[in-house]
Amino acid sequence: MKKEHASFNPYDNNGGTCVAIAGADYCVIAADTRMSSGYNILTRDYSKVCKLADKCLLASSGFQADVKALQKVLGARHLIYQHQHNKQMSCPAMAQLLSNTLYYKRFFPYYAFNVLGGLDDEGKGVVYTYDAVGSYEKVGYSSQGSGSTLIMPFLDNQLKSPSPLLLPPQDAVTPLSEAEAVDLVKTTFVSAAERDIYTGDKLEIVILNADGIRREYMDLRKD
Amino acid sequence: MENSGGFSFDLCKRNGWLVEKGIVKPPSFTKTGTTIVGLVFQDGVILGADTRATAGSIVCDKNCEKIHYMAPNIYCCGAGTAADTEAVTDMVSSQLQLHRYHTGRESRVITALTLLKKHLFGYQGYVSAALVLGGVDCTGPHLHTIYPHGSTDTLPFATMGSGSLAAMSVFESKYKEGLTRDEGIKIVTEAICAGIFNDLGSGSNVDVCVLTKGHKEYLRNNLMPNPRTYVSAKGYSFSKKTEVLMTKVTPLKERVEVIEAGDAMEE
């Protein structure tokens, strides 16, 4: 018999799915509002989307305690930035800051799977997608979390992204209109909720464009 | 290893060793993370089940059947590994059928119970089937639970599966003796719904089976509380289709000549 001592596991997975789509003059960031642990639902109404700056939104699934800590660090760093530069941080700058913050904890990572969405300096939609230790990429659309394996192939099929190896570099933004993108997001989440037990209850869609931020909600399966 | 009789668990030990050494990964099974319930009411027994089957965090069947046929007067709800609940109920229902041919009498619930628990005990919990067995026979209505290791309970109301706690909370607060058929169905449906909405392993629809003296009523999808919440107005197209490169039909050669023999067999 092998001797094992009781060990403390600092991580949990609270499930949930995030999607972001960048368009020519908008960005759509969406996540379901279910928070669960094992076979239990902890709450049916928990927002996974966090506003980091005027034109920068972060959607995160994984371990929500770590997500909360991560949001707090980014919020504090952004406040310092505002005091020093007297302006809001740009979305590409926030993307690099998030990567650095994640890699700073390389050997005790934040168990968080992030999608950062926003508008760049020209008002064009941008999406950055991350792993838990800070590797990141600028893309036209992305999905993270428990339902990402169901959603990502569908998005690939509908919104084929240009290869990042192309020269000259192609724009990663999707060809959809804002309304079409919102419709696509709703469809992906309804389908993911059918087959992923950790996705459900409610969908929160945040739309970022020249007019500012708009929020939409839609019901998902509650079982 | 020398066995003096009974079952051999050598392969279980071997498999455990292989997993421990990291040589193989054990195969994953379709677990019906489930809510199943049963209760005794004034004229018989009511069984209930949800209809979700999962493999890990993925739903692999949104509308499966978890109330299995055992005999015309006995049904059985199954939770655990889908293949095990299916196989064990099929095997026992076959034995009950043969027993009925032999005796020419209606099957009794305790017969089914004994056959099930013998089988499960023999496999020492490796056949992971947790069952709620209900039926009405010449001795009246009966309700039992059977655990994967072969232990059994005899109860007026019972729940099993990952949603058993949610369902039991409904029974504990609402069950009373001498319920009518409609009251019984209502409580059973409510208990299954508690599992569907509060346990992630359970979901989709509610199946109910009402067993009374000389009569059974299988209410498949008695309640469907999870309709689709959104359907896109325009639908989606998938551009690239499979191309037909060549069309050639080769008919099979006739190897046997069939001759119409008319009424040669009729004598």
* Whole-number mean pLDDT of chain A: 94
The main β sheet of chain B shows up as: 6 strands, antiparallel
Report the uncertain regions of chain A: none
Beta-strand portion of chain A reads 25-35%
Low-confidence stretches of chain B: none
Radius of gyration computed on alpha carbons of chain B:
24 Å
CATH topology of chain B: Glutamine Phosphoribosylpyrophosphate, subunit 1, domain 1
CATH superfamily of chain B: Aminohydrolase, N-terminal nucleophile (Ntn) domain
Mean pLDDT of chain B: 91
CATH architecture of chain B: 4-Layer Sandwich
Q: Could you say what the CATH topology of chain A is called? A: Glutamine Phosphoribosylpyrophosphate, subunit 1, domain 1
* Number of separate helices of chain B: 5
Give an account of the 3D structure.
Chain B: Belongs to the peptidase T1B family. Chain B: The active site is at 34 (nucleophile). Chain B: One of its GO terms (biological process) is proteolysis involved in protein catabolic process. The model of chain A has no long low-confidence stretch (mean pLDDT 94). Chain A has a single domain (13-219), classed as Aminohydrolase, N-terminal nucleophile (Ntn) domain (Glutamine Phosphoribosylpyrophosphate, subunit 1, domain 1), CATH 3.60.20. In chain A, α1 (64-85) crosses α2 and α3 (148-158) packs antiparallel against α4. Chain A has helices spanning 64-85, 91-104, 148-158, 178-195; strands at residues 17-22, 26-32, 35-37, 40-43, 49-53, 56-62, 112-119, 125-130, 136-139, 141-145, 202-209, 212-219. In chain A, strands 10-1-2-11-12 form a 5-stranded antiparallel sheet, covered by helices on one side. In chain A, strands 5-6-7-8-9 form a 5-stranded antiparallel sheet, with helices on one face. In chain A, strands 3-4 form a two-stranded antiparallel ribbon. With 223 residues, chain A is of the alpha+beta class. Helices cover 28% and strands 28% of the residues of chain B. Chain B has 5 helices and 13 strands. The termini of chain B are far apart. Chain B has helices spanning 10-20, 82-103, 109-122, 164-174, 181-198, and strands at 31-32, 36-41, 44-50, 53-55, 58-61, 67-71, 74-81, 129-137, 140-146, 152-154, 157-160, 206-212, 215-223. The chains are: A alpha+beta (223), B alpha+beta (267). Chains A and B meet through α4 of A and α5 of B.
